[in-house]
Amino acid sequence: MFREGLKSIIARNPELEVVGETGEGKDVLELAKNLKPDMVVLDISLPDVSGIDLTRELKGILPEIQTLMVSMHTKIDYITSAFQAGAKGYVVKDAPSEKILQALDLVSRGEYFLDSSIAPQVVERLAEGSGGAAKVADAAYASLTSREQEILRLIAEGQSVKKISQQLCISTKTVENHRTNIMSKLGLHSTMELVRYAAKLGLIDLDHWKS
User: Fold this and answer.
1) Who wins on pLDDT, 102 or 137?
2) Per CATH, which fold does 138-201 belong to?
3) Which of 74, 138, 146, 210 is deepest in the core (most CB within 10 A)?
4) Which residues of the chain are in CATH 3.40.50.2300 domains?
């Protein structure tokens, strides 16, 4: 339903044409190879893979491709990860159609776009320097995949394996495997160590736990 709405917005720009679409991340790379689009519009939370990881892979096989992220996520670490992966634009899903059209136009021309509703938050957090989410420059954290980073945050926030699996539309076994990989990569041995690590990076608010 969201893709249908997005296509109707895109149709309002006569210079843009939708040449393909899919709801599965696994199909994106194959479609891109075959269709060689100028621009790809991606969500971060796909059923089978992170849109951030896909952005990185797309840039690897089609360096000239432009990527616009359209996501419900507004946290600084999602946004910075998207741009670091090679995205040119980031707009929230509930943005008005005029803003989405502006993002499409700028990104299609190779220019950057950041949704004005979240831009002040991004600037404010980045301006904190060593504080808050700017601490996410940790080498071990950077070694995690986008999906692992997402699951790390959810575990640190106190979400159960079952709830995470339901939220991300993956099996509980997959969540457990990701958790094992996360703990191994970060050298952590308990959930409490994971929570402290996430808090140190500014990924979670410790007041949540204190309350």
Assistant:
1) 102
2) Arc Repressor Mutant, subunit A (1.10.10)
3) 146
4) 2-124
The confidence score (pLDDT) of residue 124 equals 56
In the chain, where does the domain assigned CATH 1.10.10.10 lie? Answer: 138-201
- CATH number listed for the domain at residues 2-124: 3.40.50.2300
69 backbone φψ class: left, alpha, beta (φ>0; ψ -120 to 50): beta
Q: Model's pTM, two decimal places?
A: 0.60
Length of the chain: 211
Q: How far apart are CA 206 and CA 72, in angstroms?
A: 23
C-alpha to C-alpha distance for 205 and 183, rounded to whole angstroms: 20
d(CA 24, CA 13): 25
